[in-house]
Design a protein that fits this description.
Layout: E1 2-7, H1 25-35, E2 39-44, E3 51-52, E4 57-58, H2 60-64, E5 67-71, H3 74-90, E6 95-99, H4 101-105, H5 107-111, E7 116-119, H6 126-130, E8 138-140, E9 162-163, E10 166-167, E11 172-174, E12 177-178, H7 189-193, E13 198-199, H8 202-215, E14 219-222, H9 231-244, E15 249-254, H10 262-270, E16 273-281, H11 285-290, H12 297-309, E17 313-320, H13 327-339, E18 344-349, H14 357-364, H15 390-404, H16 409-425, H17 427-442, E19 446-447, E20 450-451
Parallel strand pairs: 1-2, 1-5, 5-6, 6-7, 7-8, 11-14, 14-15, 15-16, 16-17, 17-18
Antiparallel strand pairs: 3-4, 9-10, 12-13, 19-20
This protein binds cobalamin and iron/sulfur cluster.
Length: 472
């Protein structure tokens, strides 16, 4: 059987410099399907697009494929639906299966464009579905034992390759664990992978590192959401990595608590961990509480300090727009980001990922004012903030990047160029939130930047961006 697995491209990619990092769902499942004897091709649209909407043309392999699988997050789901609809229009008999973070949260929405939808992890159900033994419309995956997950076959990824002995992909994608014991309200990881942390045995992770190393990779990104959630097991792996003494640097996501274990910090450095991506989120205690973030401002300060003093690079990730956030608290968070010692920083506007507690809350309170998934990427305001207007919040995001990256000339340039391009692409959006903010003020819903009612009660506020916005 011929199988095409697709990761659709996002409408706008602010993370263009990381575009080569694929979502691993298609690669894990593709590897299993290949091992079962099927011909599999995995497409990441930012490398090889599969559909040209201007002339309604599909990639030739999609015409040959017996089954097409699509993976998507909120930000890429509209494109997934567009591709699925084009395939169904041109080849009505072709089977389309969807999975991934967004379809798992809203399977009924996805089913309008697919024959089957997989909710949750796919490894335990993939063969039954693709080989036709399970024909349920919605199939519920079960949590996998990480030791049974195969080493992904990167050769399946179309456009990936080794040219002149050089790999055209900078970071080897490796996932050693799934799940996170915490429960931050904006994060969909616990819904998808559960709060039980499951990590591969250190020997198996080492085997994967060695596989990538022998392929020529000298850098890796571990896709784990909370890399050192189990300090004991992490240390066993780090010990092996240190002993192997490879010319191999790597990065991953960590929580602030990692810095409390001095031995672990030293081992991270010795194991050539380059950058720790830390979910700092905010320096406003009220916002941390709103987010159900399991750390304090004091812990954040100490953690970043310890890591930086140990010679490790910190990439701090912040979220602005909590109910407890005001202009002043956001300014303090931005100021902290600058003084913290973090080498790089990332700022997002709080947005409700389907399936999260935040999404449920915002739906219930009727505070979602943009329903178009294209804007669900953290760089757009889509929910009504409580103590700041949507327009001001949007401007604060731009300001945050400008202020953080103002000290080094290259970064200064990159952030200016980045947001100049962002503004051009988002002209319609910016016009809309200006209009929307004015409307809120006029209706008395927002007074002096503060939300005065418990949520939006009016139906007169458009939930999708209108094609033309008349200035009043
Ligand atoms: C690596 C990563 C990135 C990378 C690369 C991402 C990319 N190519 O899109 C970088 C750093 C660039 C990135 C950027 C962003 N990311 Co990111 N990222 C991740 C991370 C950590 C790992 C992704 C991964 O490969 N997971 C492992 C695989 C195995 O999981 P999976 O894809 O869900 O697949 C399983 C099942 O879903 C299912 N399945 C999946 N696909 C299919 C298909 C079929 C046919 C079937 C049957 C089953 C199936 O089976 C798979 C195996 O069990 C996840 C968190 C996470 N743990 O998943 C966040 C995550 C995907 N990112 C997220 C977000 C929000 C973003 C950003 C918008 C940034 C931001 N503001 O937070 C940008 C947008 C990027 C874009 N594409 O435009 C959210 C997405 C939530 C959502 N529903 O929208 C996640 C879930 C984290 C979170 N906070 O909740 N990200
Ligand atoms: S944001 Fe990080 S710490 Fe919080 S639940 Fe998600 S993965 Fe865990």
């Amino acid at each position: 059987m011929k199988v095409a697995l697709i990761e659709p491209k996002p409408p706008i990619n602010v993370y263009f410099f990381l575009t080569k990092l694929p979502l691993l769902g298609n690669l894990f499942l593709g590897t299993m399907l290949k091992k079962a004897g099927h011909e599999v091709k995995v497409f990441k649209e930012e490398i090889i697009p599969v559909y040209n909407e201007k002339n309604d043309t599909l990639h030739p392999f999609l015409k040959e494929a017996d089954i097409v699988g699509l993976t998507a997050i909120a930000h890429t789901i509209n494109r997934a639906y567009q591709i699925a609809d084009a395939i169904k229009r041109q080849f009505p008999g072709k089977k389309i299966i969807m999975g991934g973070n967004h379809p798992s949260a809203l399977p009924n929405e996805a089913l309008q464009h697919a024959d089957q939808v997989v909710v949750g992890e796919g490894e335990n159900v993939v063969l039954d579905i693709f080989e036709g033994r399970n024909t349920d419309k919605i199939v519920y995956g079960t949590r996998v034992n990480m030791n049974n997950v195969p080493i992904i076959d990167l050769g399946l990824l179309q456009g990936y390759g080794i040219k002149k002995k050089k790999i055209n992909m900078k970071y080897a994608p490796i996932m050693a664990s799934r799940g996170c014991p915490h429960d931050c309200i904006f994060c969909s990881v616990t819904q998808m992978f559960g709060r039980k942390y499951r990590i591969k045995d250190a020997d198996l992770v080492m085997e994967e590192v060695m596989t990538r190393y022998s392929e020529g990779f000298r850098k890796a990104f571990f896709y784990d959401d909370n890399f050192a959630a189990n300090h004991v097991k992490t240390k066993i792996f780090l010990e092996k990595l240190i002993r192997a003494d490879l010319d191999f640097t790597w990065s991953s996501q960590f929580i602030t608590q990692v810095a409390k274990d001095k031995e672990l910090v030293t081992m991270l450095k010795r194991a050539k961990c380059a950058t720790l991506f830390i979910g700092v989120e905010s320096i406003n205690p009220g916002a941390l509480k709103d987010y159900n973030k399991n750390h304090t401002v004091q812990m954040v300060r100490e953690s970043v300090n310890t890591l930086v003093n140990a010679g490790l690079d910190v990439h701090s990730m912040f979220i602005i727009g909590a109910d407890s956030d005001t202009e002043a608290t956001i300014d303090k968070t931005i100021q902290f980001s600058k003084e913290s010692g973090s080498r790089t920083a990332q700022f997002s506007i709080l947005f409700p990922i389907p399936g999260t507690q935040l999404y449920k809350q915002m739906k219930e309170k009727n505070r979602i004012y943009i329903n178009d998934w294209n804007y669900y990427d953290g760089s757009h305001s889509v929910i009504l903030p409580k103590n700041i207007s949507p327009l001001k919040l949007q401007k604060k995001l731009i300001q945050a990047y400008r202020r953080f990256y103002s000290t080094r000339i290259l970064w200064w340039l990159a952030s200016r160029v980045g947001f100049f391009v962002w503004k051009i692409i988002n002209k319609k959006y910016m016009k809309y939130i200006r209009y929307f903010t004015r409307k809120l003020k006029k209706e008395g819903i927002v007074k002096d930047g503060i939300l005065t009612i418990k949520g939006l009660k009016t139906d007169s506020i458009p939930r999708v961006l209108p094609e033309t916005i008349t200035r009043k």
